[in-house]
Design brief:
CATH class of one domain in chain A: Alpha Beta
Largest sheet of chain A: 6 strands, mixed
CATH architecture of one domain in chain A: 3-Layer(aba) Sandwich
Helix content of chain B: over 70%
Largest sheet of chain B: none
Number of strands of chain A: 10
Number of domains of chain B: 1
Low-confidence stretches of chain B: none
Low-confidence stretches of chain A: none
Order of helices and strands of chain B: HHHHHH
Radius of gyration of chain A: 18 Å
Order of helices and strands of chain A: EEEHEEHEHHHHEHEHEEHH
Structural class of chain B: mainly alpha
CATH superfamily of chain B: Phosphate transport system protein phou homolog 2, domain 2
CATH architecture of chain B: Up-down Bundle
Oligomer: heterodimer
Strand content of chain B: under 5%
Largest interface: A-B, 17 and 18 residues
Shape of chain B: elongated
Strand order of the largest sheet of chain A: 6-7-8-3-9-10
Distance between the termini of chain B: 29 Å
Radius of gyration of chain B: 19 Å
C-alpha cells in the first residue's frame, strides 16, 4: 500500500487485521492496517468482493452472527478499546457503533416508535424525555418537518428516501460514536440520495462515519478520506481529493477511472 | 508503462478526439506565429493576411476543445489522470488561443511595416523568433509525450529568450530616440518583440499544464 499519513485523532485503529469466513482457511481481509479519523467521513471503495463491507461489519462485530467467521489476526481498536477482546460485549459495542444498511429496514411500527426503540432498550421510559429525544433525532436526520404531523403513522408508509433517513434517525437516537453505512443510497433515487448525502455532511460534525459505496462520485462528494480495497488488501488510503485527482497506485487509478476488468 | 484502455471504449474515443483537437490547434497556432514573423522577414503581405484569416480557425478549435471537454465531464465524470487531461487541455487551449491573438498582432504590425518601411533592423527579430519557436515546439512535445523533464527545461529557455528580447527592445528604443522619423517603425518592432515574449511565456504555461497532466504537480507561480 502507498505510504499513509498519520491520523492525529483516530477513532478506529486497525493493526494488521485479517478476517476469514471459513475459520481461517482463506482470508477475505488480508493484513490491513490503517487509522480512521474522528468526526470525519471515511469512504471504502473497491470492486465487489474486495472485502469492504466485510471490514465494515467487523467494526460492530456483525460478523459474529456467522459461526465460521472470525478475525484471524491483528487488532481493531475503537476509542482505544480492542473490540474483539473477550470482555467486550457485542451488544454494548453496537450502542457505540451504529449501522445503516443498504436496504432501508424500518420496523413495522410507527415513525415515533422506530426512533424511540433503541432509547427504550436503553431504559428511557419517561414520555417527555422520549419525545424530546425522538424530535432531536428526527431533526438531526432532516426528517422532522416532513413527519412531525404523523409521528404515529406507520413508518412503512414513508417513501424510500424518508425510510432511510428514519433509519439514520433511529441510529443517531442512541448517540453512537461511529456510524457505519453500507451502501446507504444504492436503493434510492437521485433526489433521495442527495438528501441523504446532505444529511451525512451535517452528521460529520457529531459522528465519525464510515461508508461503503460503489459510487465514485458519492465517495468524492461526501468523504474526507477514501480507502481503496482490492482482493482483501488495502491498496491505497488517503485524502479523498488526492486519491481521486492523483492516486499513487496504478491499481487505484485503473479502478477509479474505469480501466478495471 | 502504457495505460490500460477504459472499459468504456467510447470514453477512450472521446479522450482521443480531445487530444487530437488540441494537437491540431497547436499545429495551426505554431504555424500562425511562424507565418506572422516570416511575413515580416520576407516582406510577404499574403502570409500576414493568411495569419489574420486563420485566427478564426484557431478560435473554432478552442470552442471545439471546450465542447469535447464538457461532453467528457458530463458523460464520463473523469478522475485522476483523465480529469487532469481534460483540465490541462482546456488550459492549454486558452493559452493557444492567446498565442493565436499575438500572431495576429504581429501580422497586422508586419503589414504596416512592409507597407511603409524596408529596413534591415526587422531581421534582428529572426533569432528571437527561433528561440520562441523552439520553446513553443518543446512545450507542445512535452505535452504530447508526457515528458516532464523537457517541460522542466523551459523555464531556463524562457529566461534566455527574455534576456535577448529585453536587449533587443533596449536597442530598438535607443534607435527610436535617435531617429524620430523612424519612431513608428521601431515602435512596431518593439511591440512585435513583446508579442513574441508573450508567446514564449504562454508556451511555458503549456509546459506547466503538461507537468500537471503527467505528474499531478501544480508548479504555477512558483
Amino acid at each position: 500500500m502507498s505510504t499513509q499519513e498519520v491520523i492525529s485523532s483516530p477513532i478506529i485503529t486497525l493493526d494488521d487485521v485479517s478476517f476469514s469466513y471459513d475459520m481461517g482457511k482463506t482470508n477475505t481481509i488480508k493484513n490491513v492496517s490503517f487509522d480512521i479519523p474522528e468526526k470525519q467521513v471515511t469512504a471504502f471503495i473497491g470492486p465487489s468482493g474486495c472485502g469492504k463491507s466485510t471490514l465494515l461489519r467487523c467494526f460492530n462485530r456483525m460478523n459474529d452472527l456467522i459461526e465460521t467467521a472470525k478475525v484471524t489476526s491483528g487488532k481493531i481498536e475503537i476509542m482505544g478499546q480492542d473490540i474483539n477482546a473477550p470482555t467486550v460485549d457485542a451488544i454494548e459495542l453496537r450502542k457505540q457503533v451504529g449501522m445503516v444498511f443498504q436496504k432501508y429496514n424500518p420496523f413495522p411500527k410507527s415513525i415515533f416508535e422506530n426512533v424511540a426503540y433503541g432509547l427504550r432498550i436503553q431504559g428511557i421510559k419517561n414520555k417527555s424525555d422520549l419525545a424530546t429525544a425522538v424530535e432531536k433525532s428526527l431533526r438531526g436526520a432532516a426528517l422532522w418537518d416532513e413527519v412531525k404531523d404523523r409521528l404515529n403513522s406507520s413508518a412503512l408508509g414513508l417513501s424510500g428516501g424518508q425510510q432511510q433517513r428514519l433509519c439514520i434517525a433511529r441510529t443517531i437516537a442512541v448517540q453512537p460514536k461511529v456510524i457505519l453505512m453500507d451502501e446507504p443510497c444504492s436503493a434510492l433515487d437521485p433526489i433521495a440520495t442527495a438528501k441523504v448525502e446532505e444529511l451525512i455532511n451535517e452528521l460529520r460534525e457529531q459522528f465519525s462515519i464510515v461508508i461503503v459505496t460503489h459510487s465514485m462520485q458519492q465517495a468524492s462528494r461526501i468523504s474526507d478520506r477514501t480507502a481503496f480495497f482490492y482482493l482483501g488488501e488495502l491498496i491505497e488510503y488517503s485524502d479523498t481529493t488526492d486519491l481521486f485527482s492523483a492516486p499513487k497506485e496504478k491499481r487505484t487509478e485503473d479502478y477509479i477511472s474505469g480501466r478495471f476488468g | 508503462m502504457p495505460k490500460r484502455t477504459h472499459i468504456l471504449a467510447s470514453f477512450d474515443a472521446t479522450l482521443h478526439k480531445l487530444r487530437s483537437e488540441l494537437l491540431e490547434m497547436g499545429r495551426i497556432t505554431r504555424q500562425n506565429v511562424e507565418l506572422s514573423v516570416r511575413g515580416l522577414l520576407e516582406r510577404n503581405k499574403d502570409l500576414c493576411n493568411q495569419v489574420v484569416a486563420d485566427d478564426d480557425v484557431i478560435d473554432q478549435h478552442e470552442i471545439a476543445v471546450d465542447e469535447i471537454s464538457m461532453e467528457t465531464l458530463l458523460k464520463y465524470r473523469p478522475v485522476a489522470s483523465d480529469l487532469r487531461l481534460v483540465l490541462s487541455t482546456m488550459s492549454i487551449s486558452r493559452s493557444m488561443e492567446r498565442m493565436g491573438d499575438h500572431a495576429v498582432y504581429i501580422a497586422k504590425r508586419s503589414r504596416k511595416v512592409i507597407a511603409n518601411y524596408d529596413l534591415a533592423d526587422s531581421q534582428l527579430l529572426e533569432p528571437i523568433f527561433s528561440k520562441v519557436d523552439s520553446i513553443f515546439e518543446k512545450a507542445l512535445r512535452s505535452f504530447i509525450d508526457g515528458d516532464v523533464d523537457l517541460a522542466d527545461q523551459l523555464d531556463d529557455d524562457y529566461s534566455s529568450a527574455k534576456k535577448d528580447i529585453k536587449a533587443l527592445i533596449k536597442k530598438f528604443t535607443h534607435q527610436l530616440e535617435e531617429t524620430s522619423e523612424l519612431s513608428e517603425y521601431y515602435l512596431h518592432l518593439i511591440f512585435i518583440a513583446r508579442s513574441l515574449q508573450r508567446v514564449a511565456a504562454l508556451s511555458v504555461n503549456v509546459s506547466e499544464d503538461a507537468i500537471f497532466h503527467e505528474s499531478a504537480e501544480d508548479i504555477r507561480h512558483r
